[in-house]
């Protein structure tokens, strides 16, 4: 029998500070990206929350009216913290990837500012990914109504299949 050439796949995994996203990444590595000689690309996508504050005047000399006004020092501190958070999340993902050293996949990282719902859907479309994998925080109905569900939004709006990985009850973090 002739061997079939494996199709290159591009799989986007949404990552954040939570255990649910790292569990989804681990699940993806165990169950989707299992081939040792695959041509797959794993895209780690992180959405930096937009700053809720701004300086009085933006770089173009226009007054910004969104959020609160703060001094440039506070803005710089917030930006530094946001960048450290990105490094923390990507380092956590990198450590997890090292556990799967037998996998031969390319890894790309996407970091964009904005609402995770929009960042993930936009990145999935822009990169023409074959699948999006997301962790589920397991919020109840009330919390989901107030906070919103990134995974539900992406499942409805993304133009590719979306796989939502739920953590087993025994490993779910307390809410």
From TrEMBL:
Pfam families from the UniProt entry: Usp
Occurrences of domain UspA (ranges): 9-166
Origin: domain of life: Eukaryota
PANTHER family found in the cross-reference section: ADENINE NUCLEOTIDE ALPHA HYDROLASES-LIKE SUPERFAMILY PROTEIN (PTHR31964), OS05G0357525 PROTEIN (PTHR31964:SF125)
Protein name (database record): UspA domain-containing protein
Highest classification ranks of the organism: Eukaryota, Viridiplantae, Streptophyta, Embryophyta, Tracheophyta
